[in-house]
Each structure stands twice: as C-alpha cells, then as structure tokens.
Amino acid sequence: MLFSRNEKSARKGAKYSAELCDFSQLGLDFVSATSYSVQPRKEMETMNQELIEVLENKINELLGKYNSLKEENAMLSEEVDRLSNDREGIKSRVDSILARLDGI
C-alpha cells in the first residue's frame, strides 16, 4: 500500500505517542504529573500547627487524668487490703465469741 507522507508520519506519530503513554508494558509505575504533591499554603500550615497544638493539649490532659487515676487506684487498692485485714480480724473475733457461747 502506498501512503502519502502525511499519513505515514501521522500513523508513526500516533504509534509513537501510544508507546510513550503505555508504561504498564514496561512494568513501570509512573505517577501522572497531576498527582504530584502540592506545596501547602501558609494557611494550611498554620491550621496544621493549631491542630497539632490542640492534639498535644488533649494528650497532656489525658496523661494527667491517667496519672491521677493511677494514683487513686493505688490508694483504693491499699484501702481494700486494709479493709480485708480488718474484716478477717473481726471475723476471727466473732468466731471466738461464738465458740465461747457454744461452750456455755
């Protein structure tokens, strides 16, 4: 078949551009230029800084609550141990009183 030069160059150009765009055949994973990261604007940077400060304050508040609850838990555990010992002492006294009553 005879083609004019314009048709040949158009066919060749179309084939060449298709080859350039089809990187999947090569096993390459190229990212299109539109998905490159964009520099954040100063407003976004300020907003991000504010969000980080709010998050930091909330974390510090949470850590403070955690530490106070941990101390309260330790105090309550000591009180439970003390009350358990008191209960055992009272129980043994009641048992001894009941034993004396059974002897009468």
C-alpha termini separation? 132 Å
Given the structure, what is the number of helices?
Answer: 2
Q: What pattern of helices and strands is seen along the backbone? A: HH
Tell me, what's the shape? elongated
- The low-pLDDT segments are 14-18
Number of domains: 1
Mean pLDDT across the residues is 78
Largest sheet properties: none
| Rg result | 41 Å
Strand content: under 5%
- Helicity level, as a percent range? over 70%
Helix/strand structural class:
mainly alpha
DSSP strand tally: 0
What does the model show?
With 104 residues, the chain is an all-alpha fold. It has one domain (5-31, 39-103). Helix content is 76%, strand content 0%. It is built from 2 helices and no strands. The chain has helices at residues 5-21, 42-103.
SSE topology:
Blueprint: H1 5-21, H2 42-103
Question: What's the quick description here?
Answer:
With about 100 residues, this protein is mostly helical. The protein has helices spanning about 5-20, 40-104. It has one domain.
Which short descriptors sum up this protein?
104 residues; 2 helices
